[in-house]
Structures are given as C-alpha cells and as structure tokens.
Amino acid sequence: MNVLITGGAGYIGSHAAQRLLRDGHTVAVVDNLSRGHRAAVAALQDGANGGRLAYAEADIADRAAVEGLITAHGITVVMHFAAFASVGESAQDPLLYYRNNVSGMIALLEACAATGIERFVFSSSCSTYGQPPEHLIPTPEDCPQAPISPYGMTKLHGEHLLGHYAERCRAAGRPFAFAALRYFNVAGADRGGRLGEDHDPETHLIPVVLQAALGRRERVAILGTDYPTPDGTCVRDYIHVEDLVDAHVAVMQALRPSDARAYNLGIGKGYSVREIIDAARAVTARPFEVVEAARRPGDPPRLYADPARIEREIGWRASVTDLHTIIASAYAWFRDHPTGYGA
Ligand SMILES: NC(=O)c1ccc[n+]([C@@H]2O[C@H](COP(=O)([O-])OP(=O)(O)OC[C@H]3O[C@@H](n4cnc5c(N)ncnc54)[C@H](O)[C@@H]3O)[C@@H](O)[C@H]2O)c1
User: Fold this and answer.
1) What is the pTM of this model?
2) CATH number, span 205-236+269-342
3) Per CATH, the architecture of 2-187+239-265 is what?
4) Of 86, 181, 189, 325, most Cβ neighbours within 10 A?
5) Could you tell me the mean pLDDT of each successive run of 10 residues in the chain, 343 residues long?
6) How far apart are the C-alpha atoms of 264 and 268, rounded to whole Å?
7) Phi/psi zone of residue 11: left (φ > 0), alpha (ψ -120 to 50 degrees), beta?
C-alpha cells in the first residue's frame, strides 16, 4: 500500500515508517520537525530495504504540501501520528494543543477529502478516558470518554472529527474507513538499534528512569506513594513500540469501506512505578537515586487496557508483555545513543 505517515520523524511514527518500508510498502513522511528528528528520517532512508520513502518537511496544516505528497505518491492510507503529546504542557498552553492537534487535524482531513483518502489510522490515547471508574479497570473501549487534560480532549476531538467526516463520506457514497487506536503507555525501541525515543523534555517514566541509570539526570522522583495500589505507586500499561506498530499494520489491512473502529492498544496488565524502577535496576545493573515526592494532580491510581476487542475482531495481541524485555530494548537505545539523535 502507499501510506502517508504524519509525524514520521518522531518516536512512534518513525518506527511505523520503518516497519512499513521493510514490508515493501511505499511510505511518504510529513513532519515539521517541531518535536521530531531529521536523523530519524535519515535512519529510515538508510534502512529502507527496498521500500520507497519520500519525505516532506512541512506542517500537517500546510494543505498544498500534504495534498502534493499524497498525489505524487499515490497515497490511499494515512497514519496520523503528528501531534503534541505532553499532558503537562497541554495544561500550561491549551491553545497550542488545540491549534496543533485539532486545527492541524482538520486541515489534514480536508487534504484527505480533496485527494480521496480511503483509510485513516489515528493515534488516539487512553487519556481520552480520563479517570475510569474502578469497575472499568481494566478499561474497555466502551468506557465513557471523559478527558481530564487539554491533551486528552484534543485526542477526543480527533476521534469525533473522524466520526463526523466518515458519516458524511458514507452518506455521499465515498469509501472512507478509520480506526482510532487508543494507546496506553508506549515504550521500548527498535530492536535493530536504528530508532528510539528522544523527547525533550522527556516526561515518560521508562526513559526518565533509564536516563537516571545512565547518569544523565540526577534522580528519579516517585510522584505519590500513597495510592490505593499494592505498593502505593501508580500502575500503568506499557506496550512495546514494535507491537504497537504491528497493530497499526493489522488494523490498516483489516479496515473495510465505511468502518469506524476504536481499539485499545495495551498489554492488558499494569506495572507500578516501583516495579519499573526495580526492573530498570535489574536490567541496567546501575545504581541511581530515587526520591519520594507528592502526588501529581490528575494521575489516576491505576490505568490499564482491556485489549480484548482487537484480539476478538482482528486476531491481534501484544507479543511482548514482560517488563524486563521492554526495558532492555529501551535501555539498548539509550546506552548506545546517550544524546539521542544528537549523537
Ligand atoms: N508516546 C506515547 O506513549 C503515546 C501514548 C498515547 C498516544 N500517543 C500519540 O502518538 C503520537 C506519536 O507520539 P510520539 O510519542 O511518537 O510523539 P513525538 O513527539 O515523538 O512525535 C510526534 C511527531 O509529530 C511531529 N509533529 C507535531 N506536530 C506537527 C505538525 N503540526 N505538523 C507536522 N509534524 C508535526 C513532531 O515533529 C514529531 O516528529 C501522538 O499523536 C501522541 O499523541 C503517544
């Protein structure tokens, strides 16, 4: 297939692009490099393995650039990863998030409408669930969506935009299908060693812990040790980035005209902050300082997926569920790229 990947110079988008290229698909990447890395695109180019890669440094809101890319490369599928993705930053600057994630996506959908895109796979998030009620943990897709951050709300708007656009297409007899994939916590790196996670500032727990283990930050703070969980720290679902990308490929292939699907992408069990720290100590065999700090407002005690729907409907499930394996793959990247793509 010929696939447009928005945000392909970022963490997850670059892994998706690499996988599609290796499978022999034609890939066009659009990224404005606001949070991504030219070196990630260069790594894709080097490892293209026969697949055809095109790249445009442009904003998704630049309709001429996006439509040009779609038309020039016969694109029929869009995987939409480009977004700002920090919960904390979204609370500091909500308008930035609405402009980039919502207005940007409207422009992208206009470009899709103008060029007749038939399949659309959207990076949504478990943050659209907000704080699920206790009886909905693990959380299924029909849990009410009630985001508690501007970021989560921009992702929910994205799902609604797609739903309404798809309805119009159906009514007009135009083929269009979409899937909103609600990721839980994505972690790990390309086991081939070309690609990894390089966010600045880094807010995700596993990279933060590994940076501490490598002496790149002074300490790790556990934000809250008095949650109603077995060891008092927050519990989250961590999915390996290669598994996540595998699900995108499976969903892309399963979509049929007029489908409007939503799937959780997680492993279906949670690990606590203390378990992550212990696993990182075991994997890295390096000491690092851990301090206990106050809770961060808005952090649900437990959040993990019920991933049964995607397995039932398209037969996909995560292959890596062992925390040590996930952390070891992330560690290999951070150890070999101490300054990320800047190395
Ligand atoms: N990382 C996670 O754990 C996680 C969890 C849930 C959902 N998601 C979603 O997955 C997607 C990818 O996340 P990531 O961790 O790879 O983030 P990332 O920041 O590494 O990658 C995003 C990429 O999009 C690009 N981008 C942003 N706005 C753009 C715009 N207007 N035009 C063109 N390019 C733009 C950035 O430059 C960057 O390369 C995001 O939509 C995010 O909300 C991520």
Assistant:
1) 0.97
2) 3.90.25.10
3) 3-Layer(aba) Sandwich (3.40)
4) 189
5) 98 98 96 97 85 95 98 98 96 97 98 98 98 96 97 98 97 96 98 94 94 95 96 98 98 97 98 98 96 91 97 98 96 94 79
6) 9
7) alpha
